[in-house]
Amino acid sequence: MSDKRDKGDEDGPLELRGVVWMTTGTRNLGGHGRIGLLRAIAETGSITRGAKALGMSYKAAWDAVDTMNSLAGAPLVERSTGGRGGGSTRLTERGRQLIERFERIEEVHARFVRQLSEEALDVGSDFDLLRVLNLKTSARNQFVGVVSRLERGAVNDEVELRLPDGTTIVAIVTRESSETLGLELGATAFALVQASSVMLATELAGARLSARNQLPGTVHRITPGAVNAEVVVDLDAGQAIAAIVTMASLQTLALAPGQRAVALLDASNVILGTLH
Known about the structure:
Elements: E1 22-24, E2 27-30, H1 32-44, H2 47-53, H3 58-71, E3 77-80, E4 88-91, H4 93-120, H5 129-132, E5 141-151, E6 156-162, E7 168-174, H6 175-181, E8 188-193, E9 199-201, E10 213-224, E11 228-235, E12 240-246, H7 247-253, E13 260-265, E14 271-274
Antiparallel strand pairs: 1-2, 3-4, 5-6, 5-8, 6-7, 8-14, 9-13, 10-11, 10-13, 11-12
Helix pairs in contact: 1-2, 1-4, 2-3
């Protein structure tokens, strides 16, 4: 067995690729190739000429059209007879709509795969799924994890979310919200926490607190303002969390970059969501 590369093979950056296929049940309605055939038929007015333009045999093109017509729920291609040219083939309104919709889906899919490739294959940084999905919220802190514990209650459920770095965040949500979100063990979910809901503390050795979430770390950055300051804490497990504290509290705690601190989150202030 030879280790030599084929001629023309070149090393390149690692990247993700993907294709879009439409299916009905276990049968394939089509993807880029069949949509291209529909487009060629629309442009040439003939299955024969459309197939020739794509380098397909007439039989393969006709079989593809027949399959699409039977699976799409309504005909995509129809033939008209008579006339000086002996008839023609054209797309139905349903066929034209399908081409337009598939082109838009491919554009969105291409952008998603490109962004996913840039994010997921950068092994030197954390994988931020919310950024890939372009999820925009007002919450300063956004975490993605897996439901690792779920305690059902008559009114509220207690949900524990385990993040990729091993950090756990506990949230209290109503039973109705838990069912609506489809929360269950092993489900992927995200936690949103407003920076104003994060409390910071120092020198907690021996102290007992009611806050369910106590996340130790080191102050990374402080951005002071006229009344409040934003404090970013690098958590020991690898994540970072932002808190808004008053300038008076900043001075009382003597917070500074490099100082140890604990971020405290009340479970009722953690908002959960799912990616359905």
